[in-house]
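Risk register update: the risk of archive-format incompatibility is retired. Evidence:
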Amino acid sequence: MASKSEPVCLIVGAGLGISLAVARCFGAEGFKLGLIARQTDKLEEVSRTLRAEGFDSFTATADAGDEDSLRNAIRSIHDKAGETQVLVYNAFAATPSNSSNLELARLLQDFRVNVGGALVAVQNVLQPMRRAARGSILLTGGGFALQPAAGMASLSIGKAGIRSLALSLFQELQPAGIHAATVTICGIVREGSHFSPDKIAQEFLKLHRQEPNDWSPEIIYQ
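Archived output:
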């Protein structure tokens, strides 16, 4: 088991884009990094990259849409690294389809990842945050929450849902000293652009660094 002296940033939906950039930001702030993803090969690639850069990282595989799988993975990270002080939920699922053609089963399956997994992750890190009267819960949102795309109905519904979850958590948890918020990304994430992972990651760090009197429930990045 790792030393419990350093705080833990837990990232659900770890990959080589936004989540890797976020991991670097929080790693540079002295956080140990807990990484959860469904695909073992990509998860290990992210972990190797971070370790090569001098960051402590700990991994567990899980399907974010499977409650038991995700709960067990979070428990594994806590056993190895310590309790979560910052949660970043970056998992998503997308089925290209118009609403009129979208199968209900597919919508519900995607929703379990896009929103349900975030809810499960939050519920499984809240106890130590409540005990410490501090913590950050940061959810990756998207512009489809503000302006849905007809051909991406499932993801549009999911991003609207995770935005609503973040805003309701902000109201609920603020009195407990826990900052819940979302970064609503209104553009296509692409290296070398205004929407590069490194620039977006700074918005997550900005939310975490806000003083309680200045807490924002959302940053709309456009």
